[in-house]
Write a structure and sequence with these properties.
The complex is a heterotrimer of chains A (about 325), B (about 200) and C (about 750). Helix content of chain B is about 30%, strand content about 10%. Chain B contains 6 helices and 5 strands; from the N terminus they run H-E-E-H-E-E-E-H-H-H-H. In chain B, a hairpin with a 2-residue loop joins strand 3 and strand 4. In chain B, helix 3 packs across helix 6. Chain B starts with 17 loop residues before the first helix and ends with a helix. In chain C, helix 5 links the parallel strand 11 and strand 12. The complex binds flavin-adenine dinucleotide, iron/sulfur cluster (SF4) and FE2/S2 (inorganic) cluster (2 copies). Iron/sulfur cluster binds next to helix 8 of chain A.
């Protein structure tokens, strides 16, 4: 790691001021992404402002049955929170499918939202990588890209968004609350992440020094069920090869609400609105699910070693939908 | 005469401002030895109060040092192991505020004020922690290198109380790799202690 | 007293291991200890044209940046296998730090030494290197030099009996396929580490090694020292699996750095550096072709193929060894060739040769069984030879059929319905597969010292190794029985070149090799003790010969009258001594030349396959082994299930990816190179036949490696049974299963 100064944040506002003051300063939460990447010299902050003890650690009900969750709530605490278990199983399942129990004890909501890709060429610190060293090229395009994305990529970058939590949050219609040098914002989840395009180094709409204070989401429709399904080689402690978060409401024998998001296959948590539209108003049959899965992967660009993910994620979507439909 | 291998030496490098130490020792060094400037810019050493296994340590540390390296290199509590240094193996698992975490991805500075418990703090005097005894009985290790991490992780698991079946224990222990392949025996040991604790209640 | 040997005793070092007091190499602290961090090359071949070390040298805490420009001159190493008499252990002939040449991507090229680890790591990152890079040969299909090695582990590389190809053409039923296994890396959880300290011209190192005497020899050679001036200690080693079998660079780099800075240096490889500069298991490409008559008797057996070695070592993965001994066949052709690549030298990894070899051979046997419409257990029973099929020698012990039947019974093989895809568990496909396990019996020279005290305790010493096998426990059990003492009165010391000589803990040879030395030392001790009593008036042992007395209950007694004896205390007190000791050095006899000495087993696997996702989960696994007498039932079981676990990783998960454009390993960490985790491994079962081998010390065989052999084939065969899909390239990944076609049996 390069040398840096360490300070504990006195409060949210102070933390924002401290980070905003220096272009190379960073917030430190659980550290499971940031310290890892600092050891790899991929992240090289000169100042760490430790926000880990700021009291952004509440899970609170919001009017109408939604939840408001502080940025510092640990992944394990959120996963086992009664309200999450009871009403938003998709989020609990997603969180518990990620990393390991000890990592989840450290990882925070804020940090998880901003975890970085696991693309090996990004992490190695030496290969051409437009995300790490803009303009240097992309070693993954012609390299070992099994883990890389088939959706949302560009010829600059095909880095997969690694988070499981975020895939669930995509179907919960989360709003991200921030406090930054320019004041407070509420950013809809759909607007938060950027696809790589020509500027893969830019991953979100956040400004430098903008602190995530929490996330909030509304209740699901009364009859809706939700589920997260993740497929990987190892039975645990592995990022997704492909995953799907689904919310499905069936009334009178037809789908009334459908939300589907994909993980492990795209450059950001990947909602598939066309597939959702196709489902609404149809009977929840295997054919309808298969058709939705087909639409969901339209435009997928398979690379040398990740082509199987197109078929795989379709099957994951179908299975996840079948599982919720079966109750 | 081999050099003194005494692990309890606390008197030399404390991992502290060793830049200065480097300068002091330059005269003894041979060719190719560089002149070490005193640190400028970021990276100033900071005071850190660590509480490990009930003992307080007032240290001055490089902000970069992980909890793992602080335990191993500064406090010479080498029971906690380093297998990957990147959160990928669990060998460094310790309990901070009673919760299991990976010490390699935790800055020492960020746990100041929180009690840390390591494998050295599991037994009470000569009495092994029930998990330690069960690990021996079930041969839940071979080389023993992943073992301190498995033990601390299992202590955390029992406290969290989210695992009941063998499959749940397996899932909840999956953050601890064992290349020797003692997994089935670890599960047996954890289950024995879990059931005994349940029956005692 | 009932014998200790055979009992499932707890490990004697268990308490140290569970309390964190067992100390590993990196955990020795010395006054003035500095930290070394290596810099590795970022090209696969060529030379370094310039080092820019200015920024690193200026960085806080830096004591030295050691490059070929300022490194002390070292002599060349003597490579592993280059001598039959000296404990040579060099893993690479690359003149690391002695020239600007680069032989593989990740080769160490500099060492940065600083006061703290963080300082050293940061400064290492500041070293800038420019190269003159040359095109590199990196894959089995590249233009590297292809050749047939002179010997394969002291055996002929090629064996031809009859006309194997002709018999294949003529065979009533046959199979002929190519199988591949990728590079694997050991991934012991303890990374390679050395603490090195000089005291004048003497060098002491704590090293992560399976071979303290080999590392000592290597360091003495490189630094031009007398053997006695180098001491190597490795009291505990955090897993080896072959990856710590030779002298890997960390040891001499730490010693070099320590010499330069005039302080003790600790050098621990980062996990990525373990991948970069410690070799793994070579990839293999193997052809297996089998022909049989209609009755299921083999008429021909062909096993050939290619593995890689490097430009700086010659290592042959002896994949065709199982085929030399497992099955009877009138026609046999076994051959292997090497390709020399610009890669980190490949090395032994648990079950070298036998492990990838059994994947191919035992998949082939399954394919033949399918073609014959014969039960695969039955096929193996029908081809059991009555003498060694390639050497013609009798077997020292062969309970292969017994192991096969034992495993089949414990596993419940009878419930298997032969048709692929015929067994289901809800949506999941169920598959049951079997494969043979095989590993040779190796024995090496060893020595030991035994001492008994007036207090009735014994100390047994040998510079062998503990990496998890339970060495100290097993040897204490053996010594306790020989000495007539309870196990808790016997202490076994190991892992130090100040102790009697032992060879590498490899080839599953250590237990019996050391047991032979301990046995001989105890015999010598008996003579020494008796010498103190045989002339003493009043001693019940007076006038007796060694053959007439036996160790019993903490003393010596007449063999024909256990009550007529004396305790060690009594004998020693009369002689005015506190202790008596004896040493012995033992070499194996010629039994391995006259007999075929092998271990066998059978692996049974039950899988669940998700037909949509191509994911495979292990439901049940049973291994049954023919390994002679088992010394400790508890630690032996651990060795077997540990081997099986690593085999499951090989079957489903493990592959080291090398970027063919650069030579860089892409997944050199424990997140991307996947070893099995808890959730991948069900309760595993291990059984053994248990008949002792009359021709080995203690009647035992080594057991560290056989557990991994055959596992990948058992899994692949189970996957075939579940899906009708034959995966011939490891690992069996979702994409391979998704794209493979069902094969319909002819
Ligand atoms: C071995 C391993 C395996 C893993 N496996 C999985 C997996 O299977 N699935 C999965 O989803 N994840 C996985 N993870 C990733 C893990 O979930 C993330 O590392 C974690 O969620 C990050 O949270 P943190 O609090 O530790 O973040 P930190 O590392 O503290 O921070 C990450 C980033 O977010 C910024 N940041 C943090 N909090 C805020 C805030 N409030 N406002 C603004 N910026 C902030 C930091 O500056 C930093 O840039 C794995 C990680 C490891 C190491
Ligand atoms: S995919 Fe993106 S992160 Fe990966 S190498 Fe290419 S640019 Fe870098
Ligand atoms: S050393 Fe911390 S997880 Fe491996
Ligand atoms: S006991 Fe060796 S790694 Fe677990």
């Amino acid at each position: 790691m390069n040398p840096f100064d360490y300070a504990r944040a006195a409060g949210a506002a102070a933390a924002v001021t401290q980070v905003a003051a220096s272009p190379r300063a960073k917030f430190l939460a659980g550290g499971t992404t940031l310290i890892d990447l600092m050891k790899l010299h991929v992240e090289t902050p000169d100042t760490l402002v430790d926000i880990g003890r700021l009291p952004l650690d509440k899970v609170e009900a919001v009017a109408g049955g939604g939840l408001a969750v502080g940025a510092n709530v640990r992944n394990s605490d959120l996963a086992y929170h009664d309200a999450v278990l009871a009403r938003f199983p998709v989020l609990s399942e997603a969180l518990l499918s990620g990393a390991s129990p000890q990592l989840r004890n450290a990882a925070t909501v804020g940090g998880n939202l901003l975890q970085r890709t696991r693309c090996p060429y990004f992490r190695d610190g030496v290969s051409p990588c437009n995300k790490r060293a803009p303009g240097s090229g992309c070693a993954a395009l012609g390299g070992h890209n099994r883990g890389n994305a088939v959706l949302g990529g560009s010829e600059s970058c095909i880095a997969t968004s690694a988070s499981d939590m975020c895939v669930a949050m995509a179907v919960l219609n989360v709003t991200i609350k921030t406090q930054g040098p320019k004041g407070e914002r509420a950013i809809p989840f759909a607007d938060f992440y950027l696809v790589p395009g020509e500027t893969p180094e830019r991953e979100t709409v956040l400004d430098h020094g903008e602190l995530i204070v929490g996330v909030e989401w509304p209740a699901l429709p009364a009859g809706a069920k939700s589920h997260y399904l993740k497929v990987r080689d190892r039975a645990s402690y592995q990022f997704a090869l492909a995953s799907a978060a689904v919310v499905l409401e069936v009334a009178g024998g037809v789908v009334t609400t459908a939300r589907v998001a994909l993980g492990g296959v795209a450059t950001k948590p990947w909602r598939v609105p066309d597939a959702e539209k196709l489902l609404v108003g149809r009977k929840p049959t295997a054919e309808a699910f298969a058709a939705a899965a087909e639409v969901a992967t339209k435009g997928a660009v398979p690379r040398t070693f990740n082509g199987f993910k197109v078929a795989l994620v379709r099957r994951v979507i179908v299975r996840a939908l079948e599982t919720v439909a079966a109750g | 005469m081999p050099p003194d291998p005494d692990p309890d030496r606390r008197d030399f490098i404390q991992g502290v401002a060793a830049g200065g130490l480097g300068v002091a020792l330059l005269s003894t060094a041979g060719p190719g030895v560089a002149a070490a400037d005193p640190p400028t810019g970021p990276g100033r050493a900071i005071p850190v109060q660590l509480t490990v296994n009930g003992q307080d340590h007032a240290l001055t540390l490089d902000p970069r040092i992980s909890l793992l390296d602080a335990l191993r290199e500064v406090l010479h509590l080498t029971g906690t192991k380093k297998g990957c240094d990147h959160g990928q193996c669990g060998a460094c698992t310790v309990l901070v505020d009673g919760r299991r975490v990976n010490a390699c991805l935790t800055l020492a500075a960020s746990v100041a004020g929180s009690p840390v418990r390591t494998v050295e703090g599991l037994a009470t005097g000569d009495d092994l922690h029930p998990l330690q005894a069960a690990f021996i009985k079930h041969d839940a290790f071979q080389c023993g290198y992943c073992t301190p991490g498995q033990l601390c992780s299992a202590v955390g698991l029992l406290k969290e109380a989210h695992a009941t079946t063998d499959d749940e224990v397996r899932e909840q222990m999956s953050g601890n790799l064992c290349r020797c392949g003692a997994y089935p025996n670890v599960v047996a040991a954890v289950q024995e202690v879990r059931l005994a604790a349940r029956d005692a209640r | 007293m009932t014998p200790a040997v055979g009992k499932p005793l707890d490990r004697v070092d268990g308490r140290q291991k569970v309390t964190g007091t067992a100390r590993f190499a990196a955990e020795y602290d010395l006054p003035g200890l500095a930290h070394g961090v290596i810099v590795t090359s970022t090209v696969a071949k060529g030379r370094v044209t310039a080092f820019d070390t200015a920024a690193a040298e200026r960085a806080p805490g830096v004591l030295a940046v050691v490059t070929p420009k300022n490194a002390p001159k070292l002599r060349p190493t003597e490579p592993f296998g280059s001598s039959e008499t000296k404990p040579v252990a060099g893993t690479t002939t690359a003149p690391v730090l002695q020239s600007d040449q680069v032989f593989w991507y990740g080769q160490p090229i500099a060492v940065v030494v600083a006061g703290t680890l963080d300082q050293a790591k940061y400064a290492a990152h500041l070293v800038r290197v420019t190269y003159d890079a040359k095109p590199a040969e990196l894959t089995l299909d590249s233009k590297g030099r292809v050749f047939v090695p002179d010997k394969v582990q002291q055996e002929e590389p090629e064996i031809t009996i009859g006309d194997a190809e002709g018999a294949l053409t003529a065979a009533a039923v046959k199979m002929d396929h190519t199988y591949t296994t990728p590079q694997h890396n050991h991934n012991a959880i303890e990374p390679h580490a050395t603490v090195a300290a000089w005291d004048g011209g003497k060098l002491t190192v704590y090293d992560t090694t399976q071979f303290v005497f080999g590392v000592r020899y290597d360091l003495a050679t490189r630094f031009g020292l007398k053997l006695d001036d180098v001491r190597v200690l490795a009291p505990f080693v955090g897993g080896g699996f072959g990856g710590k079998g030779g002298a890997w660079p960390q040891a001499f780099l730490a010693a070099t750095a320590a010499k330069v800075v005039g302080r003790p240096v600790k050098l621990v490889l980062g996990r990525d550096q373990v991948y970069a500069c410690v070799g793994g298991r070579t990839p293999t490409r193997q052809r297996v072709a089998l022909g049989a008559d209609a009755g299921g008797k083999l008429t021909t057996l062909i096993h050939t193929g290619r593995t890689s070695t490097s430009t700086t070592n010659t290592f042959t993965e002896q994949f065709n060894f199982p085929a030399r001994h497992l099955y009877a066949s009138p026609n046999i052709h076994l051959a292997q060739e090497l390709i020399e690549l610009d890669v980190c030298p490949p090395t032994f990894m648990r079950g070298p040769g036998e492990c990838p070899g059994t994947f191919a051979l035992e998949s082939g046997m399954d394919e033949l069984a399918v073609a014959l419409k014969l039960d695969p257990v039955e096929l193996r029973l029908r081809n059991d030879p009555d003498k060694d099929p390639t050497r013609g020698t009798p077997f020292s012990l062969r309970k292969y059929k017994e192991a096969l039947k034992l495993g089949a019974e414990k596993f419940g093989w009878a419930r298997r319905t032969p048709e692929p895809g015929s067994m289901k568990d809800g949506r999941l496909l169920v598959g049951l597969g079997v494969a043979s396990a095989f590993y040779p019996v190796y024995r090496m020279p060893s020595s030991a010292r035994v001492e008994v005290t007036a207090a009735g305790t014994a100390l047994v010493q040998c510079g062998c190794q503990e990496m998890g096998m339970g060495t100290a426990t097993a040897q204490a059990q053996i010594a306790a029985d020989l000495l007539g003492l309870p196990v808790d009165r016997v202490k076994f010391e190991l892992g130090d070149t100040a102790l009697p000589f032992a060879m590498v803990a490899g080839g599953s040879s250590q237990t019996i090799s050391v047991a032979a030395a301990v046995t001989a030392a105890v015999a010598a001790l008996k003579t020494a003790l008796l010498a103190l009593a045989e002339k003493a008036d009043g001693s019940p042992l007076k006038g007796l010969k060694a053959a007439d007395v036996a160790f019993r209950d903490g003393g010596l007694a007449r063999a024909d009258d256990p009550k007529a004896g004396e305790s060690f205390g009594a004998i020693l007190a009369r002689a005015g001594r506190k202790a008596v000791d004896a040493k012995a050095e033992v070499k194996p006899g010629d039994e391995a030349k006259k007999l075929s000495m092998q271990s066998y087993g059978a692996q049974f696997c039950e899988v669940r396959v998700d037909p949509d996702f191509g994911t495979v989960r292990i439901k049940r696994f049973v291994g049954a082994f023919d390994v002679g007498r088992v010394i400790n039932a508890k630690t032996a079981r651990s060795q077997f299930i540990g081997g099986i676990t690593m085999g499951l990783g090989m079957a489903l998960l493990e592959e080291t990816h090398r970027d063919p454009r650069t030579g860089r390993l892409v997944n050199a960490d424990l997140a991307e190179y996947m070893v099995p985790v808890h959730a991948d491994v069900p309760a595993l079962e291990a059984y053994w036949v248990g008949d002792p081998d009359p021709h080995t010390p203690m009647g035992a065989h080594g057991i560290g490696e056989i557990g991994i052999t055959g596992v990948a084939a058992a899994v692949a065969n189970a996957v075939y049974h579940a899906t009708g899909k034959r995966i011939r390239d490891l690992p069996i990944t979702p994409e391979r299963l998704m794209s493979a076609a069902r094969e319909s049996p002819r």
